[in-house]
């Protein structure tokens, strides 16, 4: 792709900002968005920051029919000194391109896309909420836009970035949830799209989620699609267990999404000399560990919650109450450290933070 | 759902119709479309036939992120007497609701949706091409439109029907294709969305299709996601084999789409007293039948091609040439009979045809 610049078309008036104590997730959007077009002839082109407004798409646009799309999710954090920070955003850009590959979507220039995100966040700096635990959620996504009903990769795409100020995930402090092990529905299978961040994986997960929500569970624990024996993910997070002093997480196997938080948890645990292994874990092993008292902690890891402790796991009719239903020590330490780094309160031993400079420096 | 009527807002000028000998699939659309909205408060409402025009959707509309969508595909045929015919459209409406159920989309009123399709086709009657083998393709689809980034069923949807005049699938007569057995990628697995007609299934199929197309194959033959042993579908069609005088098709198992053409093929074969069974079929069984000379025919069945004979099947490095690479007798007879019924040239023993009345009778 040739070097390109970002056209700026800013609003003359701005929307009123919401109260940062009252924020929900993903319902309010900022004044501007980033868009870039792709055609087979021109490649990615016409990068621009424009007012946030509806997309106009032909009813035959492929995204409405064949689901060819990918997305990412990350956050911008405001430090107490007024700095704007991103957390390992290059990992999201790398994964976006891995997802693109699986979905037959042309790759983006990762550095340019990250530059676009930084520039958009800088333009919208005043939208980053200040209250404890709040942030500006960043949603890059690519949709197939060719007006054609043939089942084939689209010849046209749009790469779009939108921003949403989001509230603290834990309004009353980090808190364990109840999870149901899903035996009927499957999230993904080897040879499918489980490794990619694409709409279809989320669409297919809704049914299981809907069924367990009625029974008071926060999420489902997904098992492998082949044997329904091995643990894959929890809801839309990666999952970790502490068994007899060792932290275990399912190894990446082609159907598990490679989470940025998952990778960060593994790096931190190694840094702390806490034993951590990536391998297959079966429900039977977990049941045995629960029975003999060696299942010490369980938690999910993802961008939205950072760390989500699991207080109870229900498998068929069996309830595993983990760490007396309380947040475990490792989960708490990971949560405090990760959020500490993200909000600039803790040192950043791995150079994970990418600072967003002032808009004047970005817009040339 | 309460009884509702369809508001009519017709164009004052019409587009020029394409040459019916030059038509491709799914690239040209008619003057009007049908739309109906859904909200949790109002249910399905505001049914209308309006000019065909771009949809305006918020960039955060769920369809762009989480793929919650379903669709159908059927055709309107013009008979030599000028009648407009649909083929078993009630089956498509039933399947649409089964897909809706799997994707957590509220059900539609099947009779009302079919009435809407008939009314739209009647309005666009002049768009139905007249050349041999051509038809008006009908694409009903439902998309999730709530502007919200939470992973949850949408609270807003649109049900839309668009129409596209399409050319003959076989420009030079029914013709066998070469198919590659897919060993790496998987279309669907039990517990996933394989039974539903939803975008994600098609998005995930693109990669395998792209890889075999480079090697000169028309489509892939999908194997089951668990053992990669049993045959599921071919491309986006159901598949049939004639082995030693008996026709065999994979039994519906939760990951195979229940095709309307599949069902019609089974009914016709029974009517003709041709042995037909629905059961598991492994690639090993097929290889054995190929070796001992009992693999007599193979063909796909779907709305687009009706019947698509398979002349060669390649499994790993082994090529099975079927019926000397020629269209088999059963495939030909099914193709002639099904298209004969669809175009009103053959009698319709099962009452499969639904006639579309003149627009004056439909618009009250």
Reported for the largest beta sheet of chain A, the result is: 9 strands, mixed
* Total beta strand runs of chain A: 19
Q: Provide the succession of SSEs of chain A.
A: EEEEHEEEHHEEEHEEEEHEHEEEHEH
The CATH topology of the largest domain in chain A is what? D-amino Acid Aminotransferase, Chain A, domain 1
Mean pLDDT of chain A: 95
Could you state the CATH homologous superfamily of the largest domain in chain A? Answer: Aminotransferase class 4, branched-chain amino acid transferase, N-terminal domain
Instruction: Give the distance, in angstroms, between the N- and C-terminal Cα atoms of chain A.
Output: 20 Å
Shape of chain A: globular
Question: Which regions of chain A have little confidence, pLDDT < 50, spanning 5+ residues?
Answer: none
Identify the quaternary structure here.
homodimer
- Supply the helix-strand structural class of chain A: alpha+beta
How many helical elements of chain A? 8
> What integer value in Å does the Rg of chain A equal?
21 Å
- Strand portion of chain A, in percent? 25-35%
CATH architecture descriptor text of the largest domain in chain A = 2-Layer Sandwich
**CATH classification class of the largest domain in chain A:** Alpha Beta
Keywords (chains A, B): Amino-acid biosynthesis, Aminotransferase, Branched-chain amino acid biosynthesis, Pyridoxal phosphate, Transferase
GO molecular function, one term (chains A, B): branched-chain-amino-acid transaminase activity
Organism (chains A, B): Lentibacillus populi
Modified residues (N6-(pyridoxal phosphate)lysine) (chains A, B): 197
């Amino acid at each position: 792709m040739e070097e390109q610049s970002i056209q700026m078309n800013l609003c003359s008036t701005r929307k009123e900002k919401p109260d940062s104590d009252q924020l929900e997730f993903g319902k309010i959007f900022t004044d501007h968005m980033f868009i870039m077009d792709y055609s087979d002839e021109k490649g990615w082109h016409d990068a621009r920051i424009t007012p946030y407004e509806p997309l106009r798409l032909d009813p035959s646009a492929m995204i409405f029919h064949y689901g060819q799309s990918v997305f990412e999710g990350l956050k911008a954090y405001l430090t107490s000194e007024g700095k704007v920070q991103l957390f390992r955003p290059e990992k999201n850009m790398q994964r976006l391109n891995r997802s693109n590959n699986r979905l037959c979507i042309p790759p983006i220039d990762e550095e340019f896309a990250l530059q676009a995100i930084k520039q958009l966040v800088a333009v919208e700096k005043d939208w980053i909420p200040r209250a404890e635990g709040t942030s500006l959620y960043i949603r890059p996504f690519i949709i197939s836009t060719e007006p054609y009903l043939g089942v084939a990769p689209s010849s046209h795409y749009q790469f779009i970035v939108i921003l949403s100020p989001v509230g603290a995930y834990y309004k009353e402090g980090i808190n364990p949830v109840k999870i149901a092990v899903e035996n009927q529905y499957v999230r993904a299978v080897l040879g499918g799209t489980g490794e990619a961040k694409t709409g279809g994986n989320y669409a297919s997960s809704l049914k299981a989620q809907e069924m367990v929500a009625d029974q008071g569970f926060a999420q489902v624990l997904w098992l492998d699609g082949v044997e329904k024996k091995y643990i894959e993910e929890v809801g839309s997070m990666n999952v970790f267990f502490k068994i007899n002093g060792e932290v275990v997480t399912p190894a990446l196997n082609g159907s598990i999404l490679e989470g940025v938080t998952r990778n960060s948890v593994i790096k931190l645990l190694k840094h702390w000399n806490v034993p951590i292994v990536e391998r297959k874990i079966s429900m039977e092993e977990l049941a045995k560990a629960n029975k003999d008292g060696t299942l010490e902690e369980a938690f999910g890891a993802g961008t939205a919650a950072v760390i989500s402790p699991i207080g109870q796991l229900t498998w068929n009719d069996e309830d595993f109450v983990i760490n007396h239903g309380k947040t475990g020590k490792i989960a708490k330490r990971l949560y405090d450290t990760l959020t500490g780094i993200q909000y600039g309160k803790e040192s950043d031993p791995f150079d994970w933070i990418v600072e967003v400079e002032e808009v004047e420096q970005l817009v040339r």
